Amino acid sequence: MNLNKLATQYHNKDFIKDDPIKFAHLYTKKTDIEISAFISSWIAYGSRTQILKTLDKIHAEFMGSPTNYIKEKKYQNYKNQERCLYRFYQEKDFFQLCETLHKILFEENFSCLEEKIQTLVSKKPTAIEVLEAITKIFPNQKGIPQNTKSACKRLCLFLRWMVRKNSEVDFGIWQLLNEKDLIIPLDTHVFRLSKELSLTNRKQADMLSAIQITQNLKTTFPNDPLLGDYALFGYGVNNK
After folding, report:
1. Residues 87-120, buried b or exposed e (16+ Cβ, 10 A)?
2. Are 163 and 229 contacting, i.e. CB atoms less than 8 angstroms apart?
3. Do 193 and 228 form a contact (C-beta atoms < 8 A)?
4. Measured at the alpha carbon of residue 110, what is the angle toward residues 105 and 113, in degrees to the nearest 5?
5. Counting beta carbons within 10 angstroms of the beta carbon of residue 175, is it exposed (0 to 12), middle (13 to 18) or buried (19 or more)?
6. Taking the CA of residue 94 as centre, how many other CA atoms within 13 Å lie in the half-sphere pointing to its CB?
7. How many other β-carbons are positioned within 10 Å of the β-carbon of residue 189?
8. Which end of the chain has less neighbouring CB within 10 Å, N or C?
9. pLDDT per residue over 34-60, tens digit each?
10. Which of 68, 66, 64, 60 is nearest to 35 (CA)?
């Protein structure tokens, strides 16, 4: 299997149209992109068709500005609601997520989520430090791990979107990490294929496995290991 060839096949703008990242591409303002991407990555598990359907509904409520949606607390109708939002998420879980974003941006007055994270990490943080900071910012939030023992797939996906530069797909609007330091978003398809390719010898799809796979991808993609994510994810989804 030629990972370079597969990466070229899937790492292009055509990838966007069927991926949750497509919603963040509707915006140009940094906080709009951050909010859209964070919520999109939070929803990103299960059926892609249902993920996109749910995100389409949420983004329609943004009325062109996720930042204003959060600022004006237009999510109030989700408060205390136990109706299903998506799979095991209830509407009140979405409310809680939005409340935390509101606190960061409009009570603590950080210019963006990246700036908030920078106050919790070292000057040159590792990806694990950044992931741990996010878990601290969103304590007891359903859908966000409370530690980094699990693979933290959706958070790693969000970081890929924010950090990778020179990409038609990812945004590269964050400076606190370099793309060579990212950790692969480890889902079922990527883990299965990684085992087949001997990128990991581990049996559990946890953070140690994600780190091992990422390190082995550096053999092919030394400065941008998550370029290999496109090869593994794209091939895995289309060859279930």
Report:
1. eebbbbbbbbbbbbbbebbeeeebebbbebbbee
2. no
3. no
4. 75
5. exposed
6. 31
7. 17
8. C
9. 999 999 999 999 999 999 999 999 999
10. 66
Residue count (the chain) = 240
Q: List CB contacts of 200: < 8 A, sequence separation 6 or more.
A: 191, 194, 209, 212, 213, 216
Q: Which domain holds residue 23?
A: 3-238
- Spans of the chain below 50 pLDDT: none
- Segment holding 42, helix H or strand E: helix 30-43
Domain count, the chain: 1
> What are the tens digits of pLDDT across the range 139-151?
999 999 999 999 9
192 to 97, 188, 220: CA distances (angstroms): 31, 6, 19
86 strand-pairing partners: 89
